[in-house]
Structure formats: structure tokens, C-alpha cells
Amino acid sequence: MKLNIALLAGDGIGPEVIDQAVKVSDAVAAKFGHEISWTPALTGAAAIDAVGEPYPDETHEICMAADAVLFGAIGLPRFDNDPSAKVRPEQGLLKMRKALGLFANVRPTFTFPSLIDKSPLKRERIEGTDLVFLRELTGGIYFGKRGREDNDNTAYDTCTYTRAEVERLARKGFDMALQRSKKLCCVDKANVLETSRLWRETVQRLEKEYPEVEVSYELVDAVAMRLVQWPNSYDVLITENLFGDILTDEASVISGSMGLMPSASLGEKTSLFEPIHGSYPQAAGKDIANPLATVLSAAMMFETAFGLQDEADAIRAVVNRSLAEGVVTEDLAEGGKAYKTSEVGDWLAKNI
Ligand SMILES: NC(=O)C1=CN([C@@H]2O[C@H](COP(=O)(O)OP(=O)(O)OC[C@H]3O[C@@H](n4cnc5c(N)ncnc54)[C@H](O)[C@@H]3O)[C@@H](O)[C@H]2O)C=CC1
Ligand SMILES: CC(C)CC(=O)C(=O)O
Ligand SMILES: [Mg+2]
């Protein structure tokens, strides 16, 4: 099979972790007789520096022409530390998600048997955790009207959701629940927010179409607590953009490192695969970041974008072996040998 993949490395550790995902993908492709054609494209601060905008038209065209997109991360301190910057890397990420129609971000949270004792949470709480967030990705407060008024002394961001936006995400959640343990949790703040009440009402209406699915409705603040207290009690969780962004970073603690959790951003036209972490600028250029979140995002790409299950399983199997054998970056080394980002990638590619 010929696989045409757009490659958006981005900023900070983005290029380093993407390099490892490319090595591993090429190795799995060679093993199973596929040919990958990678088309690199600019995004984030790298694109601002090169052409003045964070998601150039040319990058969009490359993404639309590809069968799938593999994305690293964007963002740099020189923008984070300058609140007055008008053009920002994150605008490129949001523009890209909107332009590609990537409304559903699938963020699984799971544990690795060899890492259970590396999590700051107790073994008996986290063992067997296997849950998945479906985060709405192209609506809500990240895309609402924002601005300043009152002589620059007041700022506002608005959160808007349409019933259609909620429904398409929720349907994906119900469908996913049917494939899994038939449990769905709608995470909102319906005791306060009107948008959350629209979410709840829309999901309640859909319940009739999915009588086999047991739905619970929980407030986001309580979920933030229960997620680390009893992660095993959750299976599929659906939620809006902001809540999903925050809760999934929190959930990464269950697995043992932010550098482990992958995601798939799905839409009608195309799909994009990206680690849940950001550009971790403190580690940029040091060859120390954990590449596994990006490598596992590539596994999701083989599975979801190309229907290549054996290839995805092969990547997951070699990742599990690397962890069991202690071939890990410094975030997981705990005083033992810390491998470089590139060494982990080489090991995975060699052992697949
Ligand atoms: N999807 C994206 O491109 C995202 C971009 N960002 C941007 O990234 C920049 C940094 O943001 P932060 O809040 O520091 O989030 P971050 O996710 O980049 O880093 C937070 C912490 O997570 C850990 N971490 C993250 N990735 C890791 C990896 N691969 N290996 C080992 N440890 C890892 C590190 O301890 C790090 O200090 C900002 O400019 C932000 O806007 C933030 C989140 C997502
Ligand atoms: C710019 C942010 C919306 C990126 C982020 O934190 C994420 O998608 O997880
Ligand atoms: Mg985030």
C-alpha cells in the first residue's frame, strides 16, 4: 500500500519526536510491504518565522492532499512570554483544526504494565485503566469571540456551541461506547453554563437512539477529582474543547508521563495524529524528550487512517517491549539509565 502522509513537525521538541515516529513508521512499513511518502510542511513558530503566518495556505493544501497528517507540537516561550504578540503559533493549530474539520479528538488514557509503579498514583487505583476521552476540537471557548474593552482593562472570551456540533461529537461517543463497555460519561458544567445545558440536553435526546448505552452525567470539577481517584470507573467520556484539554493532561499522570499519551483528531475530510503534549521548549534540542506519545500517535494513524491493524499492533508491541526492557527517556528513568530520544527511536525501529 502507498501511504501519503503530511508531516508537520512544528516547534520545540516537535521535530525531535516526529523524527522518531518517522523512523518507526518507515520500519513498520518496510516490514509489512508498504511505501510511505512523507511531505513535510511548515506550521507554528517555524512557519511564522519563514512566511509570517502559523498555518500557511501551502501547508493546508499539503494536508488536504495527504491521506493522513502526522503532527508534532507548536509553541515557543518568546510568544508565551509576550501576551501582546498578534501572530501566535497556537493560532495556527486552531486554524488547522478548523480548516481540516477535525472536530473529534480521541485521547485514550491507559497504563503500561511495566510503568504502573512509576505513576505517582497507587497501583491499586490505576491498574487496568483503559478509558478514552472524546474531546470536541473545533468549537467552544477556543473559537469564540474574544477581545478587550473598557480602555483595555477588561478582557472577554466567549464559549458557543451549536446543537449540531454537540450532536456529531456525542454520536461518535455513543458509537465508541457501543464498541467498548457501553458506558458513556458526559462531562459538563451544566449547573452553571448554558452551553453545558445544551450539551446535556442534546446527549439526553440521543440516549433514546442508543438504549444499550448506559449514560452518566458528571460535573467537570468532580470528574477532575474522580479521574485520579478511581480512573477505572470511566470508559468513554465526551466533553467540550476546554474541559477535554485540561482533563487529558491530568489523566496523563495515570500512565506515568505526559510523553506517553497519543491522540487522533478526526473529521469528515481527513484525520490528523498528534501527541497530547505541547512543544516542551525546555527540552528542545537536547534529545531528551519522550518520543512515545508521537510514536503511538503513528500507531493510531496506521489503525484509524489506513485500517492497518497489524501494523498498529506491531508498533504498540515494540513500545511495550522498550518500556519493559528499560529503554526509556529521562522522564521514566528514575535514576536508571536514561536513553536519548533518538536512541529510543533507533531501538524501536530496529526491534519492530
Ligand atoms: N498541541 C500542541 O501543539 C500544544 C502546544 N502547546 C504549547 O507548548 C508550549 C509549552 O507548553 P506547556 O504548558 O509547557 O506544555 P507541554 O506539554 O509542552 O509540557 C508540559 C510538561 O509536560 C512534560 N512533557 C511534555 N512533553 C513531554 C515529552 N515528550 N517527554 C517528556 N515530558 C514531556 C514536561 O514535564 C513538560 O514540562 C506552549 O507554547 C504551549 O502553547 C501546549 C499544548 C499543546
Ligand atoms: C493551543 C492549545 C489548544 C493546544 C492544546 O493544549 C491541546 O490541544 O492539547
Ligand atoms: Mg493541551
From TrEMBL:
Binding residues annotated for substrate, in chain numbering: 97, 107, 135, 221
SMART domains xref list: Iso_dh
Binding site residues for Mg(2+): 221, 245, 249
InterPro entries: IsoCit/isopropylmalate_DH_CS, IsoPropMal-DH-like_dom, Isopropylmalate_DH
PROSITE patterns, per the entry: IDH_IMDH
Transmembrane segments: none
Needed co-factor(s): Mn(2+); Mg(2+)
UniProt pathway annotation: Amino-acid biosynthesis; L-leucine biosynthesis; L-leucine from 3-methyl-2-oxobutanoate: step 3/4
Main location group: cytoplasm
Compartments (UniProt record): Cytoplasm
All copies of domain Isopropylmalate dehydrogenase-like, residue ranges: 4-348
The keyword Cytoplasm appears for this protein: yes
Gene Ontology MF terms in the entry: 3-isopropylmalate dehydrogenase activity
Site feature location: Important for catalysis: 142, 189
PANTHER family for this protein: 3-ISOPROPYLMALATE DEHYDROGENASE
Function of the molecule: Catalyzes the oxidation of 3-carboxy-2-hydroxy-4-methylpentanoate (3-isopropylmalate) to 3-carboxy-4-methyl-2-oxopentanoate. The product decarboxylates to 4-methyl-2 oxopentanoate.
Family (UniProt): Belongs to the isocitrate and isopropylmalate dehydrogenases family. LeuB type 1 subfamily.
Quaternary structure and partners: Homodimer.
Protein name (Swiss-Prot/TrEMBL): 3-isopropylmalate dehydrogenase
Gene name of the record: leuB
